[in-house]
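#help-structures
NK: newbie question, is this the right format to request a structure? protein is Putative aldouronate transport system permease protein
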Amino acid sequence: MKMTSGEKGFQVILFLFILLLCVIAIYPFIHIASISFSAPKEAGRFGFHWFPRDIDLFSWKQLLTQKKIWIGMRNTTLRTVLGTVLSLIAMALAAYPLSRKHLPHRSFYTMIIVFTMFFSGGLIPTYLLIRDLHLLNNFWVYILPGLIPTFSMLIMRNFFMTIPVEVEESAKIDGANDMRILWSIILPLSKPVLATLGLWAAVANWNAWFDAIIYVTDTDLKTIQFFLREVVVTSADAEIFGRVTGAANLQYETSIKAATVIFAVVPILIAYPFLQKYFVKGTMVGSLKG
């Protein structure tokens, strides 16, 4: 069908609008990356930075030779992988029974869980609880307290409820129990929601920094986001990284901050393309035959 002139004009406007959104989203990364590879004078220049005019790799050399940066990257990577996998497993184990209509008092359990989305004990009671559980200066303090995000678990529950009960009933006729149905049938049909919630959990774990400040004092357990905050907000580490004999201590501060931001952001960005194909819900097509 041939498009009219009005439809062509709308397509052009829509394309330009999306292109503008892409530029707005991508440019900050280009700007920061350009500064990270620039000499101090160029890094401090006001205006747009599309590419480094005066390339200087000193900031990256200083950054990549810092032991605690690699310690933070190791801890953050382990936290993200372990936290995401365990979170998906725990959410599935909680969401599946809540999605079954035959669960006794299902509405009551759901209400209690939803209650936790709006009310919490506060920072001090939470800290005392973490202390009494012996999780202070413990790597598991990054994993266990936020193992089951309530909102994400409810989304998974609602998705499980959309799966036709005929699939479950046919599996029970063949002798499958609830655990077999969950792992062999429900979860394979739930790849879109698992990918989406997994990405949410991964981003949340990767970007988390507050718990590293409150509950952890051991430098060997700090995350990359904690060190990123130290560099960008306090500038303490940036001054140490950028110290050059016979030169101003802060001459590379701006480029070192930019390099640290890129170093902390790029790994989680790489994960997105591998999960994007699961975002469109389509795995249910053909799961039932009429």
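mod (FA): yep, format's fine, and the tokens are attached above. The chain has 14 helices and no strands.
NK: thank you!
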